Amino acid sequence: MISIKRTVNRSIDLFHKLASVGVFVAVSFFSASIFAATESAIVWQGSWQQGGLLLGQIKPDYHISVAGEPIKTTADGRFLFGLGRNAQGSSTFLVSGPNGTVVEEHYPVVTRDFKIQRIEGVPQSTVTPPAEQLQRIKSDSALVREARREVTDKTDFIEGFVKPLQGPKTGVYGSQRFYNGVPKSPHYGVDYAAPTGTEVKAPAAGIVRLAHRDLFYSGGTLIIDHGHGLSSSFLHLSDILVTEGSRVERGDAIAKVGATGRATGPHLDWRMNWRNVRVDPELVLQAFPAQ
Ligand SMILES: [Zn+2]
Fold first, then answer.
1. Strand-strand pairing, 90-96 and 63-66
2. Between the chain's N and C termini, which has fewer beta carbons within 10 Å?
3. Residues with CB under 5 A from ligand 1 (ion)
4. d(Cα 162, Cα 89) in Å, to the nearest integer?
């Protein structure tokens, strides 16, 4: 279990201010309110590990913000929050209550040891791309960014997730990768090996935001939006069975496994993003299995 520290900075500051100007009569009153405020207005589900995705639910009439920005909540107070691979220290939320109370809550991030993975035999042009490809790589990433930009009110994530296919796991989230001996950015997906042509199923319902047959690194690439800024990406596909803008249901066949882009053999690379944060699909599956 993770111990959760909560502080009530604002109430305490007020207490100190009152004490310093000699309002000692306030002591018992403010002690009582500090005690009451330590009961959190949020219930959480999910993992506080690096790469974890959390589903919170906040009491009615309460509001939550992180890093000065309000978090989108559903009508019944549910919201997502994600931790990146390199998240450190603790996550701090400001919770405003109905009586103007503001409580700061801190949740420590649990760090992980990430593997080192060496991959030999990928096309050298995908390790050190030729100059003429740099423009294409740039426009690819602009397309992907645009596909993930919108944070919609859809709540498909609430129904939970299933594995997009059955197959041996050959890569994990967060590993530091060396391609043909050259250190590259960490791997953010979970890889499942499967023969070319194996059907990929939607892990959860959502809207197709990108269906592109040939991105430089990721080859055939599909992005599905599950709502509130949470999306799944599927890489190296040999075929895509859905079109941009269409809606898919959990379990629908959406694509076929391939080895397109920077890949040594046929496999599915499944990634998940919450806004700009890359989260670990395996932690999402563990925390939110579909009923
Ligand atoms: Zn991969």
1. antiparallel
2. N
3. 171, 189, 191, 269
4. 31
Residue 235 Cα to ligand 1 middle (Å): 8
In the predicted model, residues of the chain with pLDDT beneath 70 are 1-38
d(CA 61, CA 74): 12
Say how many Å lie between the CA of residue 259 and the centre of ligand 1. 10
Residue 5 C-alpha to ligand 1 middle, in angstroms?
A: 36
Cα of 127 vs centre of ligand 1, distance in Å, is 14
Q: What is the CATH number of the domain that holds 97?
A: 2.60.40
Which residue segment(s) compose the domain that 186 sits in? Answer: 116-287
Is residue 120 within 8 Å of 178, Cβ to Cβ? no
Out of 108, 141, 167, a domain closes at: 108
The pTM of this model reads 0.84
Clarify whether residues 22 and 161 are in a common domain: no
The answer to whether residues 80 and 54 touch, using CB atoms and an 8 Å cutoff, is yes
265 Cα to the center of ligand 1, angstroms: 10
Distance from the alpha carbon of residue 266 to the mean position of ligand 1, in angstroms:
10
CA of 185 to the centre of ligand 1 (A): 12
Q: What is the pLDDT of residues 66-112, one digit of tens each?
A: 988 999 999 999 999 999 999 999 999 999 999 899 999 999 999 99
Residue 259 maps to which CATH number? 2.70.70.10
Distance 191 CA to ligand 1 centre (A): 5
